[in-house]
């Protein structure tokens, strides 16, 4: 787009150039899934001071417990729909529930978070001369009529549906980012994130990978406890049938596709984008595309071959296909994902087992 080709305007003097040599970084939504992994990575650099602002709607202090009390780290309970007055050099603006069940829970609040929250962070960026990165989403492409999706596609989004608070909210957030850039010379970065998974996702998050892994592991608990009680080889298959616990809930038709990116790859991509010269929007995601039935089969094979797959009703406006074109990320940021789904799922399984208190068999 022409805007993306415009060279960035001269940046105001950075806050840290006046006061200190450290880079002071704000992460809104830093107590959430992606945010907390981003905190871990940024804290590895001793020149970074990290401030997290989060209202704990879907995030938790637990995700950040290893940093609480660290001299270069600060955690603030703050809702981004309220103004925030602090001094920082960079803002990673992630605050927004990402799982459909949570963003639909209070859709008006979701729109406020996307619109007023992003406006406030842009106002802050303008006042202190900070560079700001927005975590937008592949949902801006809606139920895409173009496949796979590159950044030039304008999307096919229902403006009045139950997902609109999220996808139209993010579209306005992108609009605000570009208008602050053109009108006020703010340094902006926009990432369009595709489905991301990994350790620390909420167990009851409701997104497909966390659901399937929790369901596969819980399936094992019921199965083994019942088997121990029956303790009889004749009843073995009966026990499997009756007591294998939860099924993997594939929402119909199961042929819809998603492309899943492991969280360490995502965090690396976000940092590359922030540190690079390109405003974006840039897709960040893993182009490996799977149907939900294929995902269920893979989870079954890797985690619990006994678990059953059940077809359940879907929700409205579910996008039928989604796969990123990542040529821009590759050429402009030198980024590509490294972790394949089959390698990432077991890493997530380990974390879920610890939190669910279910040991691996044998
Ligand atoms: P998450 O729900 O785990 O994290 C969101 C964080 O934002 C939580 O800690 C939550 O408490 C906080 N938050 C929500 N509303 C807030 C508010 N009004 N004020 C302050 N904090 C608030 O989700 P995530 O998966 O880590 O997603 C992070 C970002 O990435 C979101 O902006 C999301 O839209 C975007 N994204 C994620 C995915 C994905 O697959 N995970 C895909 C596309 C885009
Ligand atoms: N804002 C903020 N922190 C700041 C500066 C601004 O939260 O350090 C908020 C401010 O409350 C306002 C929004 O950001 O609602 C947009 O600010 P801007 O200065 O761009 O617009 P104005 O205040 O003129 O409406
Ligand atoms: N899905 C599913 N079973 C679940 C949860 C989700 O089959 O238990 C499907 C859902 O219908 C969608 C896909 O998985 O087609 C991805 O859904 P998710 O909520 O993870 O993310 P998003 O729709 O935002 O991409």
TrEMBL record:
Keywords: Decarboxylase, Glycoprotein, Golgi apparatus, Lyase, Membrane, NAD, Signal-anchor, Transmembrane, Transmembrane helix. Pathway: Nucleotide-sugar biosynthesis; UDP-alpha-D-xylose biosynthesis; UDP-alpha-D-xylose from UDP-alpha-D-glucuronate: step 1/1. It holds the Pfam family GDP_Man_Dehyd. Its cofactor is NAD(+). It is a single-pass type II membrane protein. GO terms for molecular function: NAD+ binding; UDP-glucuronate decarboxylase activity. It catalyses: UDP-alpha-D-glucuronate + H(+) = UDP-alpha-D-xylose + CO2. Residues 26-346 form the NAD(P)-binding domain. It is found in: Golgi apparatus membrane; Golgi apparatus, Golgi stack membrane. SUPFAM superfamilies: NAD(P)-binding Rossmann-fold domains (SSF51735). Its EC number is 4.1.1.35. Catalyzes the NAD-dependent decarboxylation of UDP-glucuronic acid to UDP-xylose. Necessary for the biosynthesis of the core tetrasaccharide in glycosaminoglycan biosynthesis. Belongs to the NAD(P)-dependent epimerase/dehydratase family. UDP-glucuronic acid decarboxylase subfamily. This is UDP-glucuronic acid decarboxylase 1. It comes from Acer yangbiense.
